[in-house]
Amino acid sequence: MNLSAPAHIANYIGGNLQAPINGKYIDNINPATGEVYSQTPDSDLADVEAAFLAAKSAYGAWSLTTTEERFKILNKIAELIDDNLDALALAETNDNGKPLWLSKKVDIPRASSNFRFFATGIMHFSTDSHHMEDKAINYTLRQPIGVVGCISPWNLPLYLFTWKIAPALAAGNCVVAKPSEVTPMTAYLLSIICQEAGLPAGVLNIIHGTGPGCGSAIVAHPQIKAISFTGSTRAGRDIAATAAPMFKKLSLELGGKNPNIIFADCNWSKMIATTIQSSFSNQGQICLCGSRILVEESIYDRFKEEFIARAKKLTVGDPLDDNTRQGAVVSKLHFDKVLGCIELAKEEGGTILLGGGAVKGTGRCEDGLFIAPTIIEGLGASCRTNMEEIFGPVVTLQSFKTEEEALQLANTSDYGLSATIWTQDVSRANRVAAKVHSGIIWVNCWLLRDLRTPFGGFKNSGVGREGGWEALRFFTEPKNVCIEL
Ligand code: NAD
């Protein structure tokens, strides 16, 4: 199996690797060097239709395979991902700009875990039955939906792509999937892995291209019955508007502006080390990053001083260097957006305590897109900087006096994806967890993930939940069968 980056990425349709029908391509750029290092298909409606037809013809057989057969194939895909860790991690880093050690430690292992988890999960999946004393018995059949669409973003490319595809396939659906056009390489390499693993032709189809060019065609396709989408709230809104009149099943995992609430009685060393991670990991480009740091007033000055000192030490630069803590942001468009948000923070009266601009790369990274870890204070809870998602290495600090004030600040947001609470008082942890308007709450930890738990957000952070049985329920239709006794 050759898992090196090709000059031209291909679509994966009906088991074959093929060029886009219109022959058009988009430049694929390494954000750490500025180099155009491959071409991505700029697919359109015609490719989506071809993918749909391939999926439809594969569906009959795939939906009838036994769960054990599906387990074997999905597990084989997981094994092949593990076997090719180095090649996949390098591809992810070259596409995305994240440190290579991070791709190796987190992104690629999680992609194989996703397949392994749902391969096993489908073997254990069960449904309800409801007895009506001596009158009748009801049982719920959960059947695959048919052809479903999976669309994913650029921040955790293979990790999030497989988080959708694996449960969809495990549940017996056939899939038309689209990775982000900004980071297509590992999804392409997954096509080759699927061929090698013996996934029957057409069961998974991977189309490359832009949101407007082919993502929207997947969503608008009248016979693609469910859409699982992770990305921006803006695109999620467009997708909901298109899908709603067709009554499609929708899972929308959208943006976040997550509070990191730090009480004075926290475990200081654990809190400060984890807060560096939750602020700047993956260049702050994780939907779960705690971008609004709320600190109890009595420890605010100490926190500020130590947090700045630690953030200053984060090495920004070449993602291939083991010492790098922060690589490049993903694209020029995003780089300009994040720098624009920092300018806005200044206009709003914020004080830049650290960073606040680009970092010049050296050597092969001279033209790379690097941004310094940036810490801002002095802004109110409802200014744009504290309300809008920046999705870069930028955090704000606010202080609070009471638990009520902390909650008020935390909940002053149109988003509700995750929150972190730092306290050693268990009663307070439970109280605050219950009152924060977010779908995922971490107490004295961050990004500690159990794949069985429901994953998703409140408010503008989305609709529905992924993970565990939630995902297998999303990718199946429940049917009640009532038998009179
Ligand atoms: P994006 O919305 O621009 O794109 C996401 C994907 O959707 C891409 O594949 C894109 O091509 C496609 N797309 C864009 N517009 C579309 C449309 N109208 N119809 C169909 N497909 C369309 O998001 P992005 O910039 O790639 O990713 C960053 C965003 O993703 C951030 O807002 C981040 O918070 C969010 N995100 C959320 C989660 C979560 O689990 N809630 C996880 C990761 C990222």
Q: Return the CATH class of the largest domain.
A: Alpha Beta
Which CATH architecture of the largest domain would you pick?
3-Layer(aba) Sandwich
Tell me the fraction of residues in β-strands, as a range: 15-25%
Kindly name the structural category: alpha/beta
CATH-defined fold name of the largest domain:
Aldehyde Dehydrogenase, Chain A, domain 1
Helix content: 40-55%
Q: Show unreliable segments.
A: none
Largest sheet data? 7 strands, mixed
Mean pLDDT: 98
Rg estimate, integer Å: 23 Å
Instruction: Determine the number of helices (DSSP H or I, runs of at least 4 residues).
Output: 15
Number of domains: 2
Number of DSSP strand runs: 24
Care to describe what's here?
The protein has helices at 45-64, 67-83, 85-96, 100-124, 157-170, 185-197, 211-220, 233-243, 268-280, 297-312, 332-347, 384-387, 403-411, 426-435, 468-474, and strands spanning 11-13, 16-18, 25-29, 36-41, 129-132, 136-144, 147-151, 174-178, 204-206, 226-230, 249-253, 259-262, 292-296, 351-354, 358-359, 370-371, 374-377, 394-400, 415-416, 418-422, 440-443, 458-459, 462-463, 476-484. The protein is an alpha/beta fold and 485 residues long. The chain has 2 domains: 11-254 and 461-484, Aldehyde Dehydrogenase, Chain A, domain 1 (3-Layer(aba) Sandwich), CATH 3.40.605; 259-451, Aldehyde Dehydrogenase, Chain A, domain 2 (3-Layer(aba) Sandwich). The protein has a 7-stranded mixed beta sheet, sandwiched between helices. Strands 9-8-7-10-11-23 form a 6-stranded mixed beta sheet, sandwiched between helices. The model has no long low-confidence stretch (mean pLDDT 98). The structure holds nicotinamide-adenine-dinucleotide. The site of nicotinamide-adenine-dinucleotide has 31 residues, from α7 and α8.
